[in-house]
Amino acid sequence: MIDQTKTKASILLIYTGGTIGMKEDPEDQTLKPFDFSQILDAVPELGKFACRLDSWTFNPLIDSSDVEPGLWQSLAELIRDNYQSYDGFVILHGTDTMAYSASALSFMLEHLSKPVIFTGSQLPIGSPRTDGKENLISSVEIAAAKDKDGNAVVPEVCICFDSHLYRGNRATKVNSENFNAFSSGNFPPLAEAGINIKYNTRYIHYPSDRSCPLEIHTELDTRVSILKIHPGITPQVVRNILCGAETRAVILETYGSGNALTKDWFIDIVREAVALDKILLNVTQCFSGSVNMSLYATGKPLQDAGVVSGYDSTTESALAKLFYLMGASSDNAWVKLMLNNSLRGEISK
Ligand code: ASP
Predict the structure, then answer these.
(1) Is the CB of 131 under 6 A from ligand 1?
(2) Which one, of 64, 53, 85, 76, lies nearest residue 22 by Cα?
(3) What percent of the residues of the chain are helix, what percent strand, and what percent coil, each to the nearest 5?
(4) Does residue 314 have an active-site annotation?
(5) 95 in ligand 1 pocket by Cβ < 6 Å?
(6) How many Å apart are CA 285 and CA 141, to the nearest integer?
(7) For each successive 10 residues of the chain (349 residues), what is the average pLDDT?
(8) pTM of the full structure
(9) Which of 64, 92, 100 best tests ligand 1's pocket when mutated (most atoms within 8 Å of CB)?
(10) Which atom of ligand 1 is nearest to the CA of 121?
(11) Which of 148, 189, 232, 328 could lock 164 by a disulfide, CB 3.0 to 4.6 Å apart?
């Protein structure tokens, strides 16, 4: 049973940047990150929660287009260092790369038993019609929610946006203008905020052993490229990306259920890349649905050539999973094997 009454939780609010805290620069009229105090000033409601709210501000604050894996490493370390002192973490982050960061943190934080909620906004918190206020308040409430035994209701890395809570490694930014900036094409929301916050507990992942200590993985191997298949793609482009010396893995964004062109030159390059020990991971360009390479004659040659299925993974999650697995081992055969498993609920298997 979920106790949605006020809890004596303690939450660490981590501010990385993003529109939520931006202000217009009078010089060039572009939005630039501003300081944290304006966020707290704009949301006096936060003071009404019966929980302790502390904050941590990154320096410099960034537009999330500038996010690098180094930020994820800092976030993972910050959460580890403060894990015992807080019941939950709320990360204010730009929307542009929020799905990448949430996916990355989901893999980097193993045996998580507390909420890590990413949120942000489409309009700065100082603007009268801002969505930042509601997003922030819902995130804090969700991060603080405990069941009757005092355990976190959502012990996962999530994105909370526009009244919906999504598993972080299942979410994608789908709208650059409207308040419903995120969606999850292959997994139901974990919660919906109306008059009350309704938790879809049957979809929330609960750790089998809550006493298992949090383990963080900050070793990431970023030698991954993404190739979006499209009509008119040339052998030169495909070879450069698939066989490039600097690339250890390539995410192939294919059509429909994992299909691509069947031209001999294309399959030959795919085979060449596999022979070079490149990891080729197939994800669909579709928003919903899964890769199934044995369905069509246009998918089977990829499977036969040694391309690995990404199932119903988002591209963001596939990228983060590769960074994490390749950082954990230099053995590509092991990485390919692990790609078949759902590690943090990122694929339906
Ligand atoms: N460019 C901004 C960012 O991602 C957009 C936003 O926050 O919504 O930091």
Answers:
(1) no
(2) 64
(3) 30, 25, 45
(4) no
(5) yes
(6) 34
(7) 58 94 86 77 85 92 96 98 98 98 98 98 93 96 95 98 98 97 98 97 94 96 98 98 97 97 97 98 98 93 97 98 98 98 97
(8) 0.95
(9) 64
(10) 8
(11) 189
